[in-house]
Design goal:
The complex is a heterodimer of chains A (519) and B (279).
Chain A: H1 2-21, E1 35-42, H2 58-67, E2 72-74, E3 79-81, E4 84-90, E5 93-98, H3 112-124, E6 140-145, E7 150-155, H4 162-168, H5 174-177, E8 198-204, E9 209-214, E10 222-223, E11 225-232, H6 236-241, E12 247-250, H7 255-259, E13 264-279, H8 290-299, H9 302-309, E14 314-316, H10 340-347, E15 353-359, H11 364-377, E16 381-387, H12 389-397, E17 403-408, H13 418-423, H14 445-456, H15 460-477, E18 481-493, E19 517-518
Parallel strand pairs in A: 1-11, 15-16, 15-17
Antiparallel strand pairs in A: 2-3, 4-5, 5-7, 6-7, 8-9, 9-11, 10-19, 12-18, 13-17, 13-18, 14-18
Helix pairs in contact in A: 8-10, 9-11, 14-15
Chain B: H1 5-26, H2 58-93, H3 96-111, H4 114-125, H5 129-138, H6 141-157, H7 159-166, H8 171-207, H9 218-227, H10 236-240, H11 242-264
The chains are: A alpha+beta (519), B mainly alpha (279).
Chain lengths: 519, 279
């Protein structure tokens, strides 16, 4: 009897081993174009993928949005339905109809009661990415649930972006969150249950690993992979070469190696990663003198940043903030070439001593080193303080700096509404996200008026004109120093998976939800 | 003389390294902290060992790294020598309770895993070289203390020392006349071993990003070069990554071999055997 048991367990173990060793494509049947597993470089903890716990930056938000569904999504040309199958606008009223069969990952049907609950819950507890805004700026004035699948939301203001904003908040399961008073610390049962195309089935903060498993009965489409894994890698490019990950950034120095390879696909991210130097004017009131801010620009050899750090792939930042390759770029912006002599004449007599906050990873440190050298040459005593990027973000959000170097993606977003969230005195510095942190201790009525007016302008051409005027004004007033924008490519193996895409608004293929859907 | 050839060879190699790097610092017109050329220029005229991504001369950086690493290593070695000798003597010679307490502290430090604790301390107090030296010293004295304690206890137990005590020799006299001469050589040689380990630990911490991020150290050079995306598919690693690795390897090897040779030459240890107790 004992012997038989032992034999049985050995056979069972062998069967399990055989199962593990079987090639991925042999397990389960896949639709054309579908893959068993997509692997991406992990290794960084972007927070638990739920609306209250993810890190504010793009990768954190993207992981959360795989798990949680919203009413609308963006494709290459415009807004498309996601959990909502249709929508219509009448004045400030937006009526959404949910798809049939929409449900949460624990099997509970998703109804308009959940949408209504989410709106109320976000009003009381703003999530990390608060597309509905927060406090007095909350976008929803009221809502009316018509039936289980139809809800009418009345917006507090209607402008060109209202539909996108209403369509992009992610919906919480009411039956879980109605019992939670403090969502910012809650990690109890159901804290990762969403209504997206993928469920989070594995998350390890220490190693920055994530596992997402396809929900094959998802109502708004078919997941392109049965599993999406973010695995820690020591060198993404070597891992890509070895086939351990399926997509990574192409280093500019190796463009020749990969561009001509027919098995490699590329998604261009034109001027999408930008770096700016923020000034906390409360701590450096001398810089409220505009001529000194001009001198900062003249002191910096920003072309060297493009050449040396970005390896030539990018542009010197436009002082109007929107990068030159954007269709919204205003050519009339004031240009500030590198004039070290002129900068020194203005800055050196002041004997300024400043600290520059930066991240200790990526290119930030190299940029900080170049800028600090330039500023020292101009007579400004600069001390560089480097912290891990999460700490740097926290310090930027708290205004705990004199100068801060901040890099982030999304500069190629269209339309560049970030001009409002960074520069408008009514929208900037709301905390939560360093992207939206603008100058502290500095106000500018003309910039604020233009930034708010473009947002309210429904005519696209007129809006573009307003955005151009706004850029020229920003370049003239210099609320912050735009250093440079980087262009890069995501590269992937076409034979593994060919569905990577960028939306009309956002260029990071790895962070777009539709990149993970069969289309 | 013939017996001492390893010392001459190793000492000569260290001296040659020092001269090479002294030239890099003082005879090389390129600064170690500012860009002086184009990005990633290969070795050649103007930049003997090429430049890094920011255009900073590699030879100048390597040279700066040698002297800062050596200075740190020697400071740590001196600190560990003084602390280790004092603690070892106290553990061997102090009256019962105090000796046991010192012994406990020595074993506590011996039992602590060094790198993880260094990483945590570096994260909290890092970025200053003085703090770094202090932390490395704190984690280097215990092995020396253990050896000194054993040696001092052995000497103290010898017949002539006990006799000297019987004839009225005070503790200070016995320490000066009998114990210190036997023990100092041992402690000094182990101190030299600390020098090598300190250089390695500093490089490890810098590699992990826990030192001053803008300092010029070999660990940081290795860290920056190896994190440069795609470096292994270009030639850049030849002049950006390889030189600091080789410099670190050569220096550490010389220091460690010298320390080991000296240890074997200590009185009463000429037979060799298990000598690397401080490892």
């Amino acid at each position: 009897m004992k012997y038989r048991k032992r034999l049985l367990s050995v056979l069972l173990a062998l069967a399990l081993l055989a199962g593990c060793a079987a090639p991925a494509s042999q397990t389960g049947s896949l639709l054309p174009g579908q893959v068993q597993t997509l692997r991406l470089a992990g290794g960084t903890d972007w927070g638990a993928p739920n609306p209250f716990l993810h890190q504010s930056r793009g990768p954190g938000q993207a992981r959360m949005r795989l798990v949680y569904g919203s009413l609308l999504e963006k494709d290459e040309t415009g807004d498309v339905g996601w959990l909502a199958e249709s929508w219509r606008q009448s004045g400030s009223e937006y009526t959404f109809t949910l798809r049939e069969g929409a449900k949460f990952q624990d099997g509970t049907p998703l109804t308009t009661a959940d949408v209504a609950f989410t709106i109320d819950y976000y009003r009381a507890h703003p999530p990390v990415s608060a597309s509905l805004g927060a406090g007095d700026a909350f976008l929803v004035e009221s809502y009316a649930v018509q039936d289980e699948r139809t809800i009418t939301i009345t917006a507090a203001r209607t402008d060109a972006d209202t539909l996108s904003a209403l369509g992009s908040f992610v919906i919480l399961p009411r039956h879980i969150w109605e019992q939670v008073d403090d969502p910012y610390t809650y990690t109890g049962e159901g804290y990762l249950v969403g209504s997206g195309a993928y469920a989070c089935t594995g998350y390890d903060a220490a190693t920055g690993s994530y596992e997402f498993t396809a929900q094959n009965d998802f109502c708004a489409g078919t997941p392109a992979a049965q599993r999406v894994l973010f695995v820690p890698v020591s060198d993404p490019l070597l891992s890509f070469e070895r086939g351990e990950i399926d997509i990574t950034d192409m280093p500019a120095d190796l463009a020749g190696r990969y561009r001509d390879d027919p098995s490699i696909g590329l998604v261009e991210k034109s001027d999408d990663m930008g770096t700016k130097l923020l000034v906390n004017f409360e701590k450096c009131p001398q810089l409220l003198d505009k001529s000194l801010r001009e001198a900062l620009y003249w002191a910096l050899d920003r072309q060297a940043v493009v050449d040396k750090v970005f390896r030539g792939a990018g542009s010197v930042g436009s002082a109007g903030y929107v990068p030159p390759s954007s269709p919204y770029y205003a050519p009339g912006c004031v240009q500030y070439p590198y004039r070290p002599g002129k900068a020194k004449a203005l800055l050196e007599p002041l004997g300024l001593e400043l600290t520059m906050l930066c991240a200790d990873s990526g290119d930030d440190l190299a940029i900080a080193e170049l800028l600090a050298n330039d500023l020292r040459a101009a007579g400004v005593a600069v001390t560089v303080q480097a912290y891990d990027s999460a700490t740097r973000d926290q310090m930027v959000n708290a205004g705990d700096y004199e100068l801060a170097l901040v890099s982030n993606g999304g500069w190629g977003n269209n339309p560049p509404d970030y001009l409002r969230t960074v520069f408008s005195d009514t929208a900037k510095n709301k905390g939560g996200n360093p992207h939206n942190m603008g100058p502290i201790g500095y106000e500018n009525a003309a910039i604020t008026a233009l930034a708010d007016a473009q947002k309210a302008e429904p005519d696209p051409d007129r809006r573009k004109e307003l955005l151009a005027e706004l850029q020229v004004e920003i370049s003239r007033e210099i609320p912050l120093v735009v250093v440079a924008t980087r262009s890069s490519y995501s590269m992937y193996r076409k034979d593994v998976y060919d569905g990577w895409m960028k939306t009309y608004a956002y260029q990071q293929a790895e962070q777009n939800r539709l990149s993970y859907m069969l289309r | 003389m013939r017996k001492n050839w390893p010392a001459f060879v190793l000492g000569g190699m260290l001296a040659a390294l020092a001269v090479f790097f002294a030239l890099g610092l003082w005879a090389n017109p390129r600064p170690a902290d500012l860009p002086s050329g184009d990005s990633l220029q290969p070795p050649g005229a103007g930049h003997l060992l090429g430049t890094d991504n920011l255009g900073v001369d590699i030879y100048a950086q390597l040279s700066g790294g040698f002297f800062s690493s050596m200075a740190l290593g020697l400071v740590c070695a001196a600190g560990a020598f003084v602390l280790g000798t004092a603690a070892g003597m106290a553990a061997a010679l102090a009256p019962g309770g105090a000796a046991a307490a010192v012994d406990l502290v020595i074993h506590l430090f011996l039992a602590m895993p060094q790198l993880p604790v260094l990483v945590v301390l570096g994260a909290f107090f890092g970025q200053s070289r003085a703090v770094l030296a202090l932390i490395i010293t704190l984690f280097s004295w215990a092995p020396i203390a253990k050896q000194v304690r054993a040696a001092a206890a052995a000497v103290r137990g010898r017949m002539y020392v006990r006799l000297a005590a019987r004839y009225g020799g005070g503790l200070w006299y016995i320490l000066r006349a009998h114990i210190l001469p036997e023990v100092l050589g041992l402690a000094a040689v182990n101190g030299l071993g600390v020098c090598g380990r300190a250089i390695l630990q500093e490089s490890s911490l810098a590699y992990l990003g826990l030192g001053d991020p803008l300092a010029r150290s070999w660990g940081l050079m290795i860290s920056k070069a190896s994190r440069f995306s795609g470096i292994y598919f270009t030639d850049y690693w030849l002049w950006w990554l390889l030189p600091p690795v080789l410099a670190l390897l050569c220096t550490l090897l010389c220091v460690r071999l010298l320390a080991r040779w000296l240890e074997r030459r200590l009185p009463g240890r000429a037979t060799g055997g298990k000598q690397d107790g401080a490892a």
